[in-house]
Amino acid sequence: MTQAQTADHLTVDLAVIGFGKGGKTLAATLARSGQRVVMVEQSDRMYGGTCINIGCVPTKSMVYRSEHLARGAAHADDYGRAVRATGELTTALRATNLAMLETLPTATVLTGRARFTDSHTLIVDVADGGTVTVSATHIVVGTGSEPVIPDIPGLRASAATVTSTTLLATPDLPRRLVVLGAGYVGLEFAAMYAQYGAAVTVIDHHERILGGEDDDVAECAREILVGAGLTVLTGATVTRIEDCDSGGATVVFERDGQTGRVDGDLVLAALGRRPVTADLGLAEAGIETTSSGAIAVDEHLRTSRPHIFAVGDVNGGPQFTYISLDDYRIVLDQLTGAGTRSTAQRAAVPYSLFMTPPLSRVGLTERAARASGRRVLVASKPVAQLATMPRARIVDDPRGLMKVVVDAETDEILGAALLSHDSHEVINTVALAMRHGITATALRDEIYTHPSMTEGFNQLLGALA
C-alpha cells in the first residue's frame, strides 16, 4: 500500500523508522511472511538508506572511476561524468529499494518524520501533509548517523564547509580541497579527490594517521597518500576558518608551536559521525541512550523497552552496512526464531578503507597481539616483493604491504592487515579462516587461482618468523 492510500491510523505488527540495511531487510522479510509492516523514511532521497544514497555505494562508485584516470593530472570533466553516473546509479537503486517494499501487500511505506508518543505509538508527519498514527507491536529504530561539525570558529558558518554528503553532490571538481580529519572518511575522500586532480591537504591533530594500525602499516599508507600527491599535516590543531573574499576559505592551524594557513575552495569536515536521535521522542517511549547519544541496547539489540529494537549506526555499534545486516539477523531471530543469536557471537569482523590501493584489516594488530602476552609470529612483506603474486603488477599497482599475525603456539591466525589491490576482497578469506579455525599453515598451503591476490598467502605465510 502506498502512502497516498494509507489511512490516518495504522495498526501493524512491525514499524521500522529508517530505510537502512537492517530495517528494510527485516521489514521485507516479515511482510513476505504476511505480517503487517510500516516503513517510515523521512526523505524520498533516502529510500534504501545511507549506504545506497550517500555512503558506501556512491563513494565507491566515485573511487572506482577515479582509479582509471592518469595520475598527476586534473580530470574535471571525468569528475563531472562520474558525479552524473553515480547519481544515475543511486537513483536506480532507490527505485529498486522502494519497490522491494511497496510491492508487498502487507507493507506500507510512509515518507515523513516519525516520533514516539508512547512505547507502542508513532506519529508520522508525512511529507505531503497531514499525519498518520501508527500503533505497532514491535518497533525498530534504524535512523543511522550523521556527520559531526564541531564548534571550530568559522567552520559551521563558512560557505566553503562541506560534509561527505554534500561533497558527493558537488558537480564541479574543487581545485583545492582541505580535509579536516584523517579517519576513514577523511582519507577516503582525500585520496579520491587527489586522483581526480584536486590539490588535497589533510589536517589531523593526531601525531600520525591511522593510529589504530601498526606503525609499519600506517607509514606505508602515508607514503602511498603522499606519493599520490596529498599533503598530510599531522599533529596540527585547527583554530579557525576564514572565508575569502574571492571564494573558498583559509584554514588556520597550530603545528609545532607555529601558526599555519592553507587555502581551499572547499573544506571537508570529516571529524566523526553521531547517531541520529533528535526529535524521535525517545523519552516519551522510555528509551534510554548512552553518554555518546546512541540508543542503548543489549546483546540482542533490545532497548530499555524490550519490544523496541535499535539497528545500525544509531545503536552505537560499528558503522558498517554489513553490521546492520547482521543486526537484522539478530532481531529476526528474536521475533521469529530461537532468540539465541547475539552481538556477542560476532568474531573476526573485517573492514576496509577505500584509498587506492585499499587498506583492509581483521582481528588483532601485531602491537595488540604482543600486548596480550601471546608469543606471535609475523609475516610482513611489501606487495612488490611477493614475486609469486603477479596480479598486482598486471593491474599496474604493486604498492602496499601485506601482513599477517599468528599465534606461535597454536598456529591460529590472530589478525591481518592488507594494504594492496583488491584487499577488500582478499580480507574476507582471512576473516573466514579465523572464524572457522583454519590455521595459518592451512591457509599457506591452499590452492588458489592464478593470477590472483589471494595466492599471495602461499608466499606471505611461508615467511612467518
The proportion of strand residues reads: 25-35%
Largest β-sheet summary: 5 strands, mixed, barrel
Low-confidence stretches: 1-6
Query: In one word, what is the shape?
Result: globular
Structural class: alpha/beta
For this structure, what is the CATH class of the largest domain? Alpha Beta
Q: Share of helix among residues?
A: 25-40%
Cα end-to-end separation? 62 Å
Radius of gyration: 24 Å
Q: Could you report the average pLDDT, rounded to the nearest whole number?
A: 95
Strands of the widest sheet, in order across it, are: 1-2-3-4-5
Number of domains: 3
The CATH topology of the largest domain is: FAD/NAD(P)-binding domain
CATH architecture title of the largest domain: 3-Layer(bba) Sandwich
Count the DSSP helices: 14
Count all strands and give the number: 21
CATH superfamily descriptor of the largest domain: FAD/NAD(P)-binding domain
Provide an overview of this structure.
The chain is about 30% helix and about 25% strand. A five-stranded mixed barrel has the order 1-2-3-4-5. Strands 7-14-8-9-10 form a five-stranded parallel β-sheet. The chain has a five-stranded antiparallel β-sheet with strand order 17-18-21-20-19, sandwiched between helices. It has three domains: about 5-145 and about 275-345, FAD/NAD(P)-binding domain (3-Layer(bba) Sandwich); about 160-270, FAD/NAD(P)-binding domain (3-Layer(bba) Sandwich), CATH 3.50.50.60; about 350-465, FAD/NAD-linked reductase, C-terminal dimerisation domain (Enolase-like, domain 1, 2-Layer Sandwich), CATH 3.30.390. It is globular, with a radius of gyration of 24 Å. With about 475 residues, it is of the alpha/beta class. It has helices at about 20-30, 50-55, 55-65, 75-100, 165-170, 185-195, 215-225, 280-285, 320-335, 365-370, 390-395, 425-435, 440-445, 455-460, and strands at about 10-15, 35-40, 105-120, 120-125, 130-140, 145, 160, 175-180, 200-205, 230-235, 235-245, 250-255, 260-265, 265-270, 275, 310, 350-355, 360-365, 375-380, 400-405, 415-420.
